[in-house]
Inverse folding.
DNA sequence: TTGTATGCGTTATCAC
DNA sequence: GTGATAACGCATACAA
């Protein structure tokens, strides 16, 4: 029930300037005398005028975004990619062109990845999304993209010591504490509080943070961590580690698996008689895990919503480029607790 | 890296028809010979052409949406309104006009509400959102809006026996089961499983469903419900009910509060010596509750994300009207488990 | 039923 | 630095 929206013409008439001047006032890189710009912006604010984003995108050049994905754990990264793809689809009317490069980690995949970034740089893209790369060698590449005026968003890893524009990831400090609290809840009135953690790859920044956070949480929520096992993100290794854990601590009361290595643990628990009596907090949600959540081997799992991370990265990068609405720092997505009673939503 | 997007001109040239014909082909209400329409739609699909939504909205009439909010619990409904407001702000470039009417429940608020719906009808709005009304008398109003070609979305209550286009609400069946599972987790190795539930207003459809779902969950997760108390959504009444509950069952092991009546319960627990030993699952998250979540009187709370419900309702209604992408049925939002370790995100 | 011409609110390009 | 004007991709009133 408000007044009709002002247009660029109204404002131009009001101020006795050309519509071009109004348009330029909103583009910081555009040439316009300081006084005129200030006057225009001031009266624009007064009338609540903002350029119509549809009309402006319609008359603007195409935006080119390059996406580089170096998959680590396939099922997890494919969700990120899905999110990116959907964000792209939703924004396709805004004249965007998206160049997606999806690689699997392997022999020379890292070199390939770096080469792709060179291509993005050479092609003068407007924005780049880098997903699943945490190695130091990528940092100078990112910095040269930024120096060339290309915005860079990273997904899953932060790379905070590079010049990246922003990054989308989970708050691993919170996840670790949540895991500890859930273990604490499950051991609420139990005397034996011996807990072991199975982590992905101890050297990756993610898992370092997770271990630290789980330790902190353990203090708060009275959980007794007796050991942390590195599964090297390898199912076979995870299998060995579970066996070893139960050899070393036959009376484990609770388990936290911080990576997509939960499956071998489920299978181990299935084969011992008191498997269901052990509290088990897992990570992520994927089809193979569903039955174990449903039948109670997994009491709860912490889901990072990789889809949303991907979606967010693309969406925010676009708006940062197109609307001059910059995003910066780390965009943390909210981890969710999934149990059998709400698994339904995550299938 | 794909081909340049086809425009309406490309398609018109390709088929030797006017651009008007192409445009009309995508509007079912538009006059166009059957064969021509089919040919156009077929080749459009072949080339992956869809009308550019920005360009089309730019040349179309304003869409008018009316919002009626009848607040029940203020802090909760204001979040819904925030969601609606933000969705509106994000879509404002699409030529939308939104008429917001926010009422507090009181003496004649229901009559006022119905009058407002009459106004919306008379003004020939394109869409209407109704929020917080569950009384039967609203159903004929909704139906006449629909009959006039106005799309109607309801929020928080479904009103499935009206002709409403769709509704955004929480899945109360899931929430009830989650509450039961959380109680079950907290009582994992405890013999005394006596649990009481405090519900909002037993006559409202929401709470009926919640009670039923909690009962079902209790069977699954081995929780022993000894009583259900109706607090009539009134803090004073809630206070009396807690007192009574503890008189009738002095050894309560767990509590589930299904409405915004958790605060009096927290205060009661604070004043008895074994308050923290009682498992307590609450509902929603609002500032007054924060300290009780942090200091452990509340073990977990189930958050319905009213903001998202509001946002969704507006967003989906708009797309249903503008893009001819209809939404129907009940859009269930995902309830979240909030504990002290992740409360941070919900402050 | 079909096509033409105009407008939607901007930015880019080219003059000045 | 500043202002005309041609796009941008589409819907629609109007004419045929």
């Amino acid at each position: 029930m408000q007044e009709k929206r002002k247009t660029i013409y109204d404002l131009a008439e009001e101020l006795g300037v050309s519509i071009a001047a109004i348009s330029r006032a909103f583009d910081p890189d555009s040439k316009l005398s300081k006084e005129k710009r200030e006057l225009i912006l001031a009266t624009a604010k007064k009338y609540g005028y903002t350029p119509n984003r549809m009309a402006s995108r319609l008359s603007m050049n195409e935006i080119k975004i390059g996406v580089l994905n170096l998959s680590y754990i396939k099922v997890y990264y494919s969700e990120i990619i899905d999110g990116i793809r959907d964000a792209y689809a939703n924004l396709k009317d805004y004249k965007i062109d998206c160049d997606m490069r999806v690689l699997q980690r392997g022999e020379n995949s890292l070199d390939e990845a770096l080469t792709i970034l060179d291509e993005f740089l050479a092609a003068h893209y407007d924005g780049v999304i880098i997903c699943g790369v945490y190695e130091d060698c990528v940092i100078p590449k990112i910095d040269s993209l930024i120096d060339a005026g290309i915005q860079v968003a990273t997904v899953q890893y932060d790379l905070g010591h590079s010049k990246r524009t922003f990054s989308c990831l989970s708050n691993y400090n919170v996840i670790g504490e949540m895991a500890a609290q859930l273990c604490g809840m499950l051991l609420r009135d139990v005397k034996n509080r011996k807990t072991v953690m199975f982590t992905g790859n101890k050297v990756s920044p993610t898992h370092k943070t997770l271990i630290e956070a789980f330790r902190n949480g353990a203090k708060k929520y009275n959980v007794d961590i007796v050991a942390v096992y590195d599964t090297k993100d390898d199912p076979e290794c995870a299998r060995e580690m579970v066996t070893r854990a139960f050899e070393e601590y036959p009376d484990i009361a609770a388990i936290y698996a911080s990576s997509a290595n939960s499956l071998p643990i489920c299978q181990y628990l299935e084969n011992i008689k008191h498997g269901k009596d052990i509290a088990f907090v897992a990570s992520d949600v994927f089809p193979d895990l569903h039955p174990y959540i449903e039948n109670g081997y997994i009491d709860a799992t912490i889901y990072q919503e990789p889809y949303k991370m991907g979606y967010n990265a693309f969406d925010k990068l676009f708006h940062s480029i197109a609307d001059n609405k910059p995003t910066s720092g780390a965009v943390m997505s909210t981890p969710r607790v999934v149990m059998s009673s709400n698994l339904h939503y995550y299938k």
Summary: The radius of gyration of chain B is 25 Å.
